[in-house]
Specification:
Blueprint (H helix, E strand, L loop, with lengths): L19 H11 L4 E4 L13 E4 L2 H9 L3 E4 L11 E7 L8 H11 E12 L7 H6 L7 H11 L1 E9 L4 H25 L1 H11 L17 E8 L10
Parallel strand pairs: 1-2, 1-4, 2-3, 4-5
Antiparallel strand pairs: 5-7, 6-7
Helix pairs in contact: 3-5
Amino acid sequence: MEEHQEDHWSGSRHVVQVRPHVWNWVAPRVGAGSVLEIGPGLRPTAPVATSTFVDASSHALSRLAARGATTSRAGVALPFPEHSFDAVLAFEVIEHVHDDTGLLAEMARVSRSGGMLILSTPVHASLWSPLDDACGHVRRDEPLVLFEKIRAAGFEIGGYVWTPPASRSLTSIRARALRTNRRLSTAFVQTMIFPFHAAYQRMFAKLEWLSVVEPPPARADDVMLWATRAGDERPIGTG
């Protein structure tokens, strides 16, 4: 995982647990198993006090650790032994990483057989926008290319969901804010936007997974998928 020169999370001390509807789906499938989340910044999806987090931001890690999390600084490889986790989460991460196949291989290495992977990333190169540049993205894979990378790493894809792009005007505003002062704009949305967004998701968002037999449409801006680590099956959350 690459680190930007400026730690854009350093303008906020506020940790917001996002995607509660996703965690509510994951939790009963993982049970008491160990969970790793990669690159959450100050917006983790996994419960902070009972999970392990890897991030390039020292500030974010210090805030997560203050709330009881196990934390580790991002590097070339994940700093854990093989088969350490029952679930690995990585939301909006691999599009920032030049060696995405290497990171996926590391996710597979630290996953236990039958363990879960939950991953999201932007897709379709044709949808590249100034916001991708402002966020430091290095690619938008085509969905079928993404699926093949996941399988090649050693996972079996169970399903996916996709989201359409935001309006051009909103995308332009977000990109301009990030280019002007990423630290300040991150702190603003962390405090003023994401708490309400998470509350909305908790009350209204639902997951309806689609089969990979039918690939995402050309208008899909972002894909989230779940997969399991291939190998000899064992119950998640044991051993």
